[in-house]
Amino acid sequence: MKQKYKTLKYDDYGQEGLLAYELSLIETSNPYLICTLEYKEDDYRLMDNETYKIRDEVWFHKDTEQLKEVKRINTKIHLHNLTYIIYEVTNKQAYLNIWSMASHDLGIACYTVSGESDIYAIIGDLKSGEFFNDEDFDCSHSPWVYTQHYGGGSDEHHAVFYTNISQCFDYMQNKLIQNNMTCF
After folding, report:
1. Within a domain: residue 184?
2. I need a surface site. Which of 85, 123, 163, 170 has the fewest CB within 10 A?
């Protein structure tokens, strides 16, 4: 049975993922970053804006090397082959760098979940092709989840925070107020 959850939607342009990271600091475990690759890994190379040539390196490798890879999961959802990669967040800046690409076509950050999550249950859901969505969100595997939802154009996104724990909701709501962040 799905548990009830509370939701906060807010703008966090330029600091994607930061409040979720700060919330994780009051827990006993590092959070997990769930990334999604929709293409082959080699296709995640950025263009150099000065030379207009494709760079040699995959943009996120430098950052993901500073995180602890927990699991890679290959799955298919609606005829799309996806690879989920779950990382334990062990480096704040690497984590924030990955989330900073949220608006980019080649962004990979998908969810940040509490370090106190049942990560094996989440892995099971990802393996079976189940994924989080707004219509039927299940917080039973994690005390809280942070993600981004996208609008119709480039750089149109907003943060969404789900929790089934009142203290986590209150913490995030207070942080939004303290930081004068638009919440809707």
Report:
1. no
2. 170
Q: How much of the chain is in helix, strand and coil states, percent to nearest 5?
A: 25, 30, 45
| Domain assignment of residue 1, yes or no | no
Q: Are strands 157-163 and 68-77 parallel, antiparallel or unpaired?
A: unpaired
Are 17 and 161 within 8 A, CB to CB? no
Question: Does pLDDT of 18 surpass 60?
Answer: yes
Domain of residue 52 covers 6-178
Residue 8: exposed, middle, or buried by beta-carbon count in 10 A (0-12, 13-18, 19+)? buried
* Residue 111 within a domain: yes
Q: For residue range 41-87, what is the model confidence (pLDDT) as tens digits?
A: 999 999 998 999 999 999 999 999 999 999 999 988 878 889 999 99
Among 70-79, 88-97, 154-163, 172-181, the range of highest mean pLDDT = 88-97
List strand residue ranges (DSSP E) for the chain, in order. 6-10, 32-37, 45-47, 54-58, 68-77, 80-88, 109-113, 144-150, 157-163
pTM for this structure? 0.92
Q: Which residue has the tokens 């005829």?
A: 79
- Mean pLDDT of the residues in the chain: 89
Number of domains, the chain: 1
First-last CA distance in the chain: 28
